[in-house]
């Protein structure tokens, strides 16, 4: 443990906590300090299964983690229905909050968490790891190059995977009392977030879900899609998310002079490097028997996995608050809130029978 390490506590033993606990270990300015579960037996098993060092404190309740004065920040991968209670309590205990997505069941619920964070001067960030990969910054540079890419006018995103019968029977993401947003909240969060990221978080004017919608017997969404319209701005977007399709993580950005395409935007094929295909200035060859320009593969190296980069950035912000008296960075709660706002609009459109909803 280095002197300047931010000490993390983890609330809950969800599968994603395995990845983030590893990320905390890999991050040079972070230390895994404590893990808490609903029982000490479950917490001990999680720690043993993941090879946690003996220095990690093991607690049999979430409250014990929040009451530990040495914990600077908490990572919270709890079911979405529990986010308001434990997120607000974490902020009131002055613990900086790295909250797994979806952040809440509604923007009204998220506002309760964000207000608690603001009132207590703690940093908030959601767990959208892909935003922290250097490829994402590289793509933003390309998007802003008007000669290379032109003006953005269309976006398409997918995030899907196919699961086992056990998943549909037991996983919290298909349980209405735990994560009632289903696929929309889980993988749809990435799609909506990517679309907003591409537009510099300018909200669409209208959202409309596509007629193809699949829910389980309890009404939890297993697959859905939607279209977004920016009105006079001229941009449009579509997305599709599903627990029922082969794995896909596509993001395609279309401009007036170029396009960017990647097939692994939420989880890169490899930890150490990621790529995207860039096509710029292409046209059809004579007689339209080919293209004048082939896409170029743009490769971007990453010294750390994207989840470790996320933890590192979050810890840097926490350290600036703790040691340098800085204010929390408002960019991250704003990104989460806008994503949640659009997600709510998609849900409202579903409730209205796939009718358009204005934002």
TrEMBL record:
GO terms for molecular function: nucleotide binding. Residues 138-260 form the GFO/IDH/MocA-like oxidoreductase domain. Pfam families: GFO_IDH_MocA, GFO_IDH_MocA_C3. InterPro entries: Gfo/Idh/MocA-like_OxRdtase_N, GFO_IDH_MocA-like_dom, NAD(P)-bd_dom_sf. Residues 6-125 form the Gfo/Idh/MocA-like oxidoreductase N-terminal domain. SUPFAM superfamilies: Glyceraldehyde-3-phosphate dehydrogenase-like, C-terminal domain, NAD(P)-binding Rossmann-fold domains. Belongs to the Gfo/Idh/MocA family. This is Gfo/Idh/MocA-like oxidoreductase N-terminal domain-containing protein. It comes from Coptis chinensis.
């Amino acid at each position: 443990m280095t002197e300047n390490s931010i000490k993390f506590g983890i609330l809950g033993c969800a599968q994603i906590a395995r990845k983030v606990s590893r990320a905390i270990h890999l991050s040079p300015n972070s230390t895994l300090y404590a893990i808490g579960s609903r029982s000490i037996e479950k917490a001990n098993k999680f720690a043993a299964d993941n090879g946690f060092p003996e220095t990690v404190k093991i607690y049999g309740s979430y409250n014990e983690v929040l009451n530990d004065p040495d914990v600077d920040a908490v990572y919270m991968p709890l079911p979405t229905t529990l986010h308001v209670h434990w997120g607000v309590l974490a902020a009131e205990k002055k613990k900086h909050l790295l909250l797994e997505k979806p952040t809440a069941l509604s923007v009204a619920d998220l506002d309760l968490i964000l207000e608690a964070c603001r009132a207590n001067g703690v940093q908030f960030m959601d767990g959208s790891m892909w935003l922290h990969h250097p490829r994402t910054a590289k793509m933003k540079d390309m998007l802003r190059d008007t000669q290379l890419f032109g003006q953005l006018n269309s976006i398409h995103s997918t995030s899907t995977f196919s699961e086992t019968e056990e998943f549909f029977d037991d996983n919290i993401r298909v349980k209405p009392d735990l994560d009632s947003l289903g696929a929309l909240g889980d993988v749809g969060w990435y799609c909506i977030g990517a679309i907003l990221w591409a537009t510099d978080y300018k909200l669409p004017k209208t959202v409309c879900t596509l007629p193809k919608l699949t829910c389980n017997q309890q009404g939890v969404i297993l697959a859905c899609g939607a279209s977004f319209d920016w009105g006079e701005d001229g941009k449009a977007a579509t997305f599709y998310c599903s627990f029922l399709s082969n794995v896909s993580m596509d993001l395609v950005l279309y401009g007036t002079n170029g396009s960017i395409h990647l097939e692994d935007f939420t989880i890169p094929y490899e930890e150490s490097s990621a790529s995207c295909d860039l096509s710029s200035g292409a046209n059809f060859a004579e007689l339209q028997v080919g293209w004048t320009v082939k896409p170029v593969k743009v490769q971007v190296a990453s010294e750390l996995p994207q989840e470790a980069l996320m933890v590192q950035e979050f810890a840097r912000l926490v350290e600036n608050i703790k040691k340098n008296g800085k204010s929390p960075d408002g960019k991250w709660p704003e990104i989460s809130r806008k994503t949640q706002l659009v997600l709510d609009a998609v849900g409202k459109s579903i409730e209205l029978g796939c009718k358009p909803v204005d934002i």
